[in-house]
Amino acid sequence: MSDGKIPAARISIDGRSLRDILRLHAAWLNGDGGERANIRGGTLADADLRQADFRQAILSGVTFLDADLTHAVFEGAELHKCDFRNAIMAGADFTAASMDQINFQHCQLPECNLSEARLEDLLFRDANMRDCRLYDVRMIACDFSNANLRSCFFNHAILSDCSFTEADMEKCNLLRARINSCRFIATTLTDANLSSVQAPDCEFRFAKLNSAKLNIANLVQCSFYGAVMTSCDLRESNLSTADFSGAMLQNSNFGEANVLAADFRGSVLEGARGLTGRQLSKALTSYTTILPSGVRGPFIQGKYSELPIFR
Q1: What value does the CA radius of gyration of the chain take, rounded to a whole number of Å?
Q2: What is residue 110's DSSP assignment?
Q3: Measured in Å, how far apart are the chain's first and last C-alpha atoms?
Q4: Are 247 and 269 spatial neighbours (Cβ–Cβ below 8 Å)?
Q5: To which H or E segment does residue 277 belong?
Q6: Cβ of 264: how many Cβ atoms within 10 Å?
Q7: Hey, how many other C-beta atoms are within 10 angstroms of the C-beta on 47?
Q8: Is the distance from CB of 195 to CB of 215 less than 8 angstroms?
Q9: Which of 79, 126, 141, 189 is the most buried (most CB within 10 A)?
Q10: Which pLDDT belongs to residue 301?
Q11: Of 76, 72, 26, 67, whose CA–CA distance to 51 is shortest?
């Protein structure tokens, strides 16, 4: 038994032990009669639920505070208004689960699988989610503020109105994700892969994007105000009307990017590659802009200030 945790046999819900509920649920899953687990209300706080099988279970209003759910399985489960705060959930499996109004604040969720899950109005603030898999996940109004999301996979995910403020997303993979009106304010995205993302009208203010891959991305009307974006790959991206004012863009690659009406006032483009005079003439620059050649703006055609200082 996990140190200090309560075994399932000693937990009673509506007059039945949790162990019996899970035993009947296992029989139902195997087609041997039994009964689908449908737990509404009740507390499983401090429970020892390591490797517990909640596949396709219905859980509504259940409290899992401080529970040990290491390698527990919630594949295809339906969860509503549950509280997992401070739970230990390393390696838990939520594949294709449907969840809304769930609290995962301060949870330990490393190496969990949330692929193909449907998440709405979930709290992951301060959670440890490093190395999680979220392939094809669908998320609406979820909060990952200050969460550890290092090396997570969001490939092909659809994210709407979510907050990643001050989260650590270093080396995350968001290849071909569709991101709508999400906030990455002061988020660490160093070495992240955002290739081919569709992310119009998102907030990346003060984010750290050093060496991030943003090539072939749709970043129309995004705000990168004050962001640190040295050595980024922005080739062939749509940066039209994006705000890069005050951003640090040294040595980044803008080859064939669309920078129509992009705001580079106050930004540092020193050493930036791939920018042509034609591109810069369509963008907004000012005397506060440091151009690729290292001279101050504004950009004037014919002065070759689009040529990087490091050739």
Answers
A1: 24
A2: T
A3: 63
A4: no
A5: helix 277-282
A6: 30
A7: 24
A8: yes
A9: 189
A10: 85
A11: 72
Question: Over the stretch 107-119, which tens digit does the pLDDT of each residue have?
Answer: 999 999 999 999 9
Strands 12-13, 16-17: pairing is: antiparallel
Residues 6+ apart with CB under 8 A from 283: 259, 260, 261, 262, 263, 264, 299
Q: At 267, list the tokens.
A: 């930004």
Return phi, psi of residue 220, to 5°.
-60, 135
Identity of residue 248: M
Provide the pLDDT confidence category of residue 310 given band limits of 50, 70 and 90. Answer: low
Cα atoms in the 13 Å half-sphere on the side-chain side of 125: 7
What helix, strand, coil percent values describe the chain, rounded to 5? 5, 25, 70
Question: What distance in Å separates the CA atoms of residue 124 and residue 143, rounded to the nearest whole number?
Answer: 6
Which tokens is 32 given? 């041997």
Report the distance separating Cα 106 and Cα 108, nearest Å.
7
Asked whether the beta carbons of 196 and 213 are under 8 A apart, the reply is no
Compute the distance between CA of residue 192 and CA of residue 213 in angstroms, rounded to an integer. 6
Residue 78, both tokens: 């339906």
Helix (H, G, I), strand (E, B) or coil at 296: strand
If pLDDT is split at 50, 70 and 90, which confidence band does 94 have?
very high
What would the two tokens of residue 202 be? Answer: 């998102």
Distance CA 241, CA 160 (A): 21
